[in-house]
Amino acid sequence: MAKTLRTSGDYTVKAGAGSSGSNTIRLDASAVRIPGNLTVEGTQTTINSTTLTLEDQFMEVNRNNSTAGTEDSGIFFNQGSNDNQILYYDADQSEFVIGTTTHAATVSAITNITPGQLKIASTPAQSDHAASKSYVDAQVSGAAGFSLKVAGDDSTQITVASGNTLQFSGTNGITTAGAEPDTITISLGRNLDNIDTISTDRSNQDLTLTSNGTGAVVIDDVLSFSGMASDPTATAQTKVYNKTAGGGGTGLYFINSNISSGAVGELISKSKATALAIALG
């Protein structure tokens, strides 16, 4: 038989001393429905149901916080005998954190946290989406982006796409730009200092110094030639080199395929030239 209890004002059901006591009011039914709002004013609310369903679009935690940016708040995930997992907002750092903590859900501030793993989609759909490790690895070392691997003085390949920038840290005045196919341009905005050796590691490869426009390559100090064991091959370019001095008395030789049919010539010293002039009268 349905029964309605109606009052003209507030109605209180009190067991023992009420909220200050230890007695319990139990509603024993297959379902309890409250058409109006429900306000729980105690310090703890425990729900023992196996499924909790909310119609609300948003859920608010830390409701009575009245201070700006000073209280941590979030959700604890009970893991039984293991430490709790937690997703919370760290007010001091102004960031969200996910991880493992030894705290219980009754704590007011998180002071112990071991950051955990967060699994997301492999490929971000928008530029402001978080990227997975596999996506970042593919962009850095795969065909879709550029790869940079420098280890010691080995011959590891460096690949860049057009528009990418390769930055060298250290001395100022160095800028770089990438262009396809596989080209890196390094521009120096200042003189090179403390350089002892410039060499090429490719066998029989020329080392070319080229000035810009009508400028010249200037040697502003002593130019030293190491001794050659044999004469180089004559080409259309004049090659100057050093070997044991001959009749010219300098040991500084030159060779050019367009001069004397590529025959080797030696520059003559002043003393040799003077003696030759006297001898020839």
Please describe what this structure looks like.
- With 281 residues, the protein is mainly β.
- The protein has two helices and nine strands.
- Among the domains are: 56 residues, no CATH class; 56 residues, no CATH class; 71 residues, no CATH class.
- The strands form three sheets. Strands 1-2-3-4 form a four-stranded antiparallel beta sheet, with no helix packed on it.
- Strand 2 and strand 3 form a beta hairpin.
- 3% of the residues are buried.
Keywords:
281 residues; mainly beta; four-stranded antiparallel beta sheet; 9 strands
Write the layout of secondary structure elements.
Layout: E1 73-77, E2 84-90, E3 95-101, E4 114-115, H1 133-141, E5 174-179, E6 183-188, E7 239-242, E8 252-255, E9 265-266, H2 270-279
Antiparallel strand pairs: 1-2, 2-3, 3-4, 5-6, 7-8, 8-9
- Look at the helices and sheets and give the structural class: mainly beta
Mean pLDDT: 85
Low-confidence stretches: 149-154
Please provide the count of β strands: 9
Which H/E pattern describes the elements? EEEEHEEEEEH
Number of helices: 2
Widest β-sheet, arrangement of strands: 1-2-3-4
- Write down the Rg: 43 Å
Tell me the strand percentage band: 15-25%
Quick overview:
This protein has helices at about 135-140, 270-280, and strands at about 75, 85-90, 95-100, 115, 175-180, 185-190, 240, 250-255, 265.
